[in-house]
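Teaching note: in complex prediction, the entire set of molecules is handled at once rather than each chain in isolation. The prompt given to students was simply: 'Predict the structure of this complex.' The entities are:
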Amino acid sequence: MLFYNYYIMNKKRGVVILRIIILLMLLIIPFVSASFFDFPNIKEVNLNIKNWITGKATSATTTLNITIGNTAPIVNNITPISAQSVTAGSITNVTFTFVATDADGVSNIDNTTASGRFNISAGDDKRFNSSCKVLPTVISTTQANFSCTIALWYWDPSGQWTVNASIKDTPGAYAQNYSTNFSLGSTTAMNMTPTALTWSSVGPLSTNTLANQNITIFNIANKNITANNVNVTAISMQGETTTTEHLNASNFTVSIANACDTGATMVNATTISITPSNITAGNFTASSAPQEELFFCLEEVTAGISQQSYSTTGAGAWTVGII
Amino acid sequence: MKNKELKLSFGFLIFLLLIPLVNAWGVTTYYEDKSPLVMAPGETKDVYLELQNMDGNKDVTLKAEMAQGSEIATFIDPSREYLVPVGRKDIKVNIRVKIPENAPLDNKYNIVVLFKESPKIEEGKMLQIAGAVGTSIPIVIINLLLENPAPAVVNVKENKIPINSLLAVVIIIIVIIGFIIIFRKKNK
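The expected output is the structure of the full assembly:
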């Protein structure tokens, strides 16, 4: 009516206003769907209006077949693991807990699939427990707490290890979390046997006499004993009767070969590397156990000393060491 | 014959089982060449090593010795002798590391600590041997200021007003101005 009156009164002015209104409507239209007039139930309102106009029935009986989708579980809250060290010659049990969350309820979690795994990027060493235990502590209707104990062996390499916890739900949906790390220190330890040596019938003129025993050293921790890091510190052996006489340390050689004249010559109270000895970390009970054998040779007897027993009892024991 | 073989096998088994009991103490460091102790010139840090005696059958007393690096490292503990009871792996050996002010950058130090067990003197043994185990703490000297520069300050202005709303307001203003212009022309 207003437009009509304008048209009658002033045709030119009416045309201008009409153009402005059309322009305004065109400009506003894009914002209707964006957010300006974004009514949440606008479809429902439109449907009702349509039904009202067309007379279509607003209700009917129908059969619905609804399939509810499974929600995959989530693994989180892995407890932090402090810095660890291996146990020489044995295992170290490391325990952590984690929480499995399933929106479909704890009954949907397959407890038998709870697993823990330790990985280290430096190699393919992996330690795992595929039967972590569910803890009786109830967190909520959708969360279960699990405890996992994994054994680290004494030869497992030092460095940053990644903790991986995983689980499945009953339909088989898999979830894992590997956001936690721990540090494994570098441990040096050895097993040496025997710890005493004897020589049979050594006379003043004896030369190149090997000891009756050789010493075997096993690496029972995770540090690789690299070349020249097995050493011996010798002490001149004191006479048991005439204590002022000594069988000099320099009369002895130590070698990784079962022979005299090939080893390192000892120096009294001085640490001497035995080349090229080395012992990598590994399972020392295996048939190919990483080990090193040391052979001790009395190259010659110190000139001028008397015939008596000489031993380390008075001056002190020799030392075999690894670094 | 079979009985003899059985006895031999049994004896060998006993030997294998006894092996871990001979000497099962060790020392752990948390610093290695791949993860050295990083320090700056003039800096002082306290670090520790850990002694263990887990598989042994007796307590051991270990004597510590600074074999290398004594110019920058000292033992903090009052005694150089450490008693490591059976079943423990947490006996700490505390060491203080002090880097000189004039230490050249990228210089590397290495602290080597040896632990030696005093052997029990046994009569009739000509040459007795004690076990010694050592470990090292590699140190790398760096300029901490260069390694950890202060984070750059970034001013991020949050755009809180939606562009759509702003555009709508602008259009409405233009329309109103248009109406005013039209009405003014009309009045003229």
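Point out the following to students. The radius of gyration of chain A is 42 Å. The domain at 74-184 of chain A is CATH 2.60.40 (Immunoglobulin-like).
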